[in-house]
Design brief:
This protein is an alpha+beta fold. The protein contains 2 helices and 12 strands; from the N terminus they run αβββββββββαβββ. The strands form 2 sheets. Strands 1, 2, 3, 4, 9, 10, 11 and 12 form an 8-stranded antiparallel β-sheet that branches.
Length: 169
């Protein structure tokens, strides 16, 4: 009898945790499928990425975060890029080398760079400057400018399929 009560208690707790996990996933996670090459080799085309939509409700994006966002009137859907500059930063790209506030940015995650340049820009309040890790194949802030905070969907936290953590980057 005691054994049956323990099993019921365990089953009840497991069911409650499963319902809680489903609620969290429903309200605080999005799972877009990546279609472009701009974040290769770290995020590949066809991969599903978990986006924490709660991440920036009480905190601001930080340099190095991988964020998901939507652009005005862009039917392509969700963009995923890396934050390079936060409000107040001055970002400049000279022959493919990124400078933030006059200091060369160390970018071990970039395997496919390019030699393009972009003029210095001051990142405005409530915006971020984003670049793809695969610079040669990325449409990013070099093209469309800083991304306003109200366009951010959240922070990418894990590759869902195939399963792996983005923290490895």
């Amino acid at each position: 009898m005691v054994r049956l009560a323990r099993w019921r208690s365990f089953a009840s707790l497991t069911l409650q945790l499963a319902v809680l996990a489903l609620l969290v996933a429903a309200f605080f996670l999005r799972l877009p499928q990546v279609s472009g090459l701009s974040m290769e080799p770290h995020i590949r085309p066809g991969e599903y990425v978990a986006i924490n939509t709660f991440a920036y409700r009480f905190a601001s994006p930080r340099r190095g975060d991988i964020v998901a966002f939507r652009r005005d009137n862009d039917a392509r859907g969700v963009f995923i890029k890396r934050v390079i500059g936060v409000p107040g930063d001055r970002v400049k790209i000279a022959s493919g080398h990124v400078y933030v506030n006059g200091i060369a940015l160390r970018e071990p995650y970039v395997e496919h760079g390019d030699a393009r340049s972009a003029p210095e820009i001051a990142v405005p309040a409530h915006s971020v400057y984003v670049l793809g890790d695969n610079r040669a194949a990325s449409e990013d802030s070099r093209v469309f400018g800083p991304v306003p905070d109200d366009r951010l969907m959240g922070r990418a936290v894990a590759g869902v399929w195939p399963p792996r953590m983005l923290g490895e980057l």
